[in-house]
What we know:
By secondary structure, this protein is mainly α. The chain has one domain. Helices cover 69% and strands 7% of the residues. It has helices at residues 2-39, 43-48, 54-73, 79-98, 127-157; strands at 103-108, 120-125. Strands 1-2 form a two-stranded antiparallel sheet. Helix 1 (2-39) packs antiparallel against helix 3 (54-73) and helix 4 (79-98) runs antiparallel to helix 5 (127-157). The longest helix is centred in the N-terminal third of the chain and has 38 residues, at 2-39.
Amino acid sequence: MVEERSTSKSVLRKVISRLFKAAFWAFLMGGEVLFVSYILGLSEYTTALLPVEGPFFFGFMVTFILFEVAIQLLSETIFRYVISVTRAFISMIYLILMTNGGIMKITIPPEMVPFGVGTIIFTVEFRTILAVFLMFSLISILKNLIQAINFLSERAELPFTLPKIP
């Protein structure tokens, strides 16, 4: 009975520490952007300066926050690496979609331009920078695959004992 209590307390401590760690990393990975935009009421200003529609960008941020929470909650398991590879792959797709293949067009509406000049349109081409970001994502995928293989090899070396059946 005492062993069950100590085991349940250690599991509860582990889960609570993972929840706090996940909340901290979720805030770092994009929670501050959502906090500033929605809670402080600045979403109309931030979405006007984004090269894509606001819901698409905030969906992107929520996706990354959910991935980070899942990675932190599933730490010390193989699923952490699976989710990390998935996150890197999805970030590659999002980057290509958000930047329109490396050509971004930012339109600043007339009400945000001082002195009523009119609409300002910026067009930025950065295909080489996008290619570098995509290469970093591929390196991240490779790194996570190697870490997953290492994790599985370390687990294979641990002794396994069958539980006793009463």
